[in-house]
Write a structure and sequence with these properties.
The protein is an alpha/beta fold. The protein is about 45% helix and about 10% strand. It folds into two domains: about 45-145 and about 280-325, D-Maltodextrin-Binding Protein, domain 2 (3-Layer(aba) Sandwich), CATH 3.40.190.10; about 145-275 and about 345-355, 3-Layer(aba) Sandwich (D-Maltodextrin-Binding Protein, domain 2). The strands form two sheets. Strands 2-1-3-9-4-10 form a six-stranded mixed β-sheet. The structure holds fe (iii) ion.
Length: about 350
């Protein structure tokens, strides 16, 4: 109705009341502006728009469940982490995105630094998410925990020979380690954690020792490293457990066979604990559906969604009240590093430079 009343065509007869074309143009412009203002509430209806760096099948079922429960529709745009961040930056205040979902704390910290997130205070989020797994000021929240232990060949390594990440730089492991490249944010975060614990000089010496023990030049993803261990190309690797979990339950027979040839060792049990990272999300600085985005965050941190992360994704629930999947439970309990994962982001640039100096390709 408003639109019809303000339509310049409808106004045509009244235009003659204005005697100059200048004032008519002015009236037209004013009408258009008014129409725009009135149209905003309709555009900002109840929905949530997500930019997600997580693969669609790893998040979609949860989002559908949220929509079913709340009647709030969700629009999902998936893409690479760096591209989504760049997009948020270039769209600025005009971004349609309300929530940014990523699979690494380093990425979330980068988003905070770029100014594309806003702080959220929520009693429910604080209750369900331990403080080590969320931004200290509430810019982002972890939703699942991923552990990066040592994965070794059952027939060539005895668990008694393993102890810490630090020990992997010892010359006993010369030519026996496969690791993904330094481009991997997972390795960058691992090194950032080492810097937080030991400082730069000690971490650099460690990284040089580790690189000297590589069985081959880094290539492939975490799954490829596990397969290389199973195939005898190397004796051990560092990989996120959900990749191994995915291989254990894979429909591909070869992946199942490879998974059966390796085992998980939880390093640093007596010291700093196992390196952990998170997948998580933050509400964007210019979210048009802020309240709905917070509702979705709270839903993802709540029992039902947390159980789904554990059972289907083979990730560790961020909520300590929820047990991990049977596959993960079979590998035993471990002591997780209690370092706030925000540190991994803060030290990311330093870690990348350090890995480069250490010759980690
Ligand atoms: Fe991954």
């Amino acid at each position: 109705m408003t639109a019809i009343l303000l339509d310049p065509q409808f106004l045509e007869p009244f235009m003659s009341l204005f005697n100059s074309s200048k004032s008519r143009t002015l009236l037209s412009v004013l009408c258009s502006l008014l129409m725009g203002l009135l149209a905003i509430p309709a555009l900002a209806g109840g929905e949530v728009n997500i930019y997600s760096a997580r693969k669609e099948d790893l998040i979609k079922p949860l989002l559908d469940d949220f929509s079913k429960q709340t009647g709030i529709p969700i629009n999902l745009v998936t893409g690479k982490e760096a591209e989504l961040l760049q997009r948020l930056q270039s769209e600025g205040i005009n971004t349609p995105a309300d929530l940014l979902l990523t699979s690494d704390a380093g990425r979330l910290a980068a988003a905070r630094q770029a100014g594309v997130l806003q702080t959220i205070q929520s009693a429910a989020l604080e209750k369900h998410i331990p403080s080590a797994y969320r931004d200290p000021e509430g810019y982002w929240y972890g939703l699942s925990v991923r552990a990066r232990p040592i994965i070794y060949a059952r027939d060539r390594v005895k668990p008694g020979e393993l102890s810490t990440y630090e020990n992997l730089a010892a010359s006993d492991w010369k030519g026996k380690i496969c690791v993904r490249s330094s481009d991997s944010i997972y390795n960058q975060s691992l090194v950032a954690g080492m810097i937080a614990h030991h400082g730069e000089a000690k971490t650099e010496a460690w990284a040089k020792g580790l690189v000297a023990n590589f069985a081959r030049s880094p290539k492939g993803g975490d799954r490829d490293q596990i397969k290389a261990v199973a195939a005898g190309e190397c004796d051990l690797t560092l990989a996120n457990t959900y990749y191994l979990g995915g291989m254990v339950t894979s429909s591909d027979q070869a992946e199942q066979v490879a998974a059966a040839q390796v085992a998980v060792f939880w390093p640093n049990a007596m010291t700093t604990g196992v390196h952990v990272n998170i997948s998580g999300a933050g509400v964007t600085a210019h979210a048009k559906n802020r309240d709905n985005a917070v509702k979705l965050l709270e839903f993802l941190a709540d029992d039902k969604a947390q159980r789904w992360y554990a059972d289907v994704n083979n990730e560790y629930p961020v909520n300590p009240a929820i047990p991990p999947s049977a596959t993960l439970k079979a590998w035993g309990e471990f002591k997780a590093d209690t370092l706030n994962v925000a540190k991994l982001g803060e030290l990311n640039a330093e870690a990348v430079k350090l890995m480069d100096r250490a010759g980690w390709k």
